[in-house]
Amino acid sequence: MLMAAGVDIPKKVFAHGWLLVAGEKMSKSKLTGIAPSDITSHFGVDAFRYYFLRAIPFGSDGSFSWEDMSARYTSELANDFGNLASRLAAMIEKYCEGVLPAVSSDESLKSALAATVEKADAAMCALDFQGGINSIMDFCKKVNGYVTEKEPWILAKDPANKKELEEVLYNTAESLRALAVLLHPVMPATCEILWESLGAQEKLGSIAKQKISDVATWGQLSAGARVTKTPVLFPRLETNA
Start and end of every Methionyl/Valyl/Leucyl/Isoleucyl-tRNA synthetase anticodon-binding domain (predicted)? Predict the structure, then answer.
C-alpha cells in the first residue's frame, strides 16, 4: 500500500516480543489477561516503565508476574534507588542544615560513573534497554556500597571528621545527580522529583535538557545548593499485592 501510494517504505521496523503472564499466553477464557492500569495503579507508571524495560529484553518474549515485579520494585527501586535518595536528603538536612557542602570527588566513583555512562549509552543506542539499565543500577549499587563503607552517620559523631563527612555527602549527591539524568528516560516523573530535591534545577536547568555526553563530568552540583526532602519515591507495597 505504501509503495502504491508513492510513500517510502520503512528501512527498519522494531517489534517487541510476546508478553506472557506467569509463563502463559494471555487468554480471556482462562482469565490470564491483565490490564496495564491494574499494574500502574499499584506500582505507579514509572515503575511500570522500569520493569518492562529492565526485566524483558527488547524484541524477545517475556513473562510478567506480580511476584517478580514486586521483588524488583522492592529491591531495586525502593531499596537501592529510592532509599539512597531519602538517606542522602535526611543526612544533609541533619548534618549540613540542608545545604550541599563543598565540591569534592572520589576517584572510584568518578571512574565507575564514566564507565557506566559509556556502557549505558552504547547499550541504549543498540536498543539493549535491559543492558543499559543494568549498567546504571550496578552504579547505583556501588554508590550504596560507598555510603555503607564510609558510614557518614559514624563520621558525624566526631567534629574532627567534618571535612570527610562533607566529602562523602557531596560525592553521594553528585552520584545521584548522574543517576537522575541516566534514569530520566525510563522514570521521568521520579527523576524530576529527585533533580529538584538535589537543588540542581537552578544551576543546571531542567533535567530534560541534560546531555548524556556531560553526565560523567564530575562536580556539577553547586556547593551551597539547598537539598530538600521529598515524599518517598517508591512507597512500600501493600502486603496483599
Answer: 108-210
Tell me how far CA of residue 57 lies from CA of 18, 48, 74, 103, in angstroms. 11, 15, 21, 38
* Cβ contact 221:199 at 8 Å: yes
All three cell numbers of 106, joined, read 572520589
User: Is residue 29 very low, low, confident or very high in pLDDT (cuts 50, 70, 90)?
Assistant: low
**Residue 128 in grid coordinates:** 539493549
Burial group, residue 218, by CB count within 10 angstroms (0-12, 13-18, 19+):
buried
**Could you tell me the CATH superfamily of domain 87-226?**
Isoleucyl-tRNA Synthetase; Domain 1 (1.10.730.10)
What nine digits make up the cell of 79? 531499596
- Structure pTM? 0.91
**What residues does each domain of the chain span?**
16-77, 87-226
Q: Counting beta carbons within 10 angstroms of the beta carbon of residue 88, is it exposed (0 to 12), middle (13 to 18) or buried (19 or more)?
A: buried
Ordered strands of the 62-64 beta sheet: 24-25, 19-21, 62-64
Secondary structure (DSSP) of 195-236: HHHTT-HHHH--GGG--GGGTT-S--SPTTPBP---S-SSPP
Query: Which class for 49: exposed (0-12), middle (13-18), buried (19 or more C-beta within 10 A)?
Result: middle
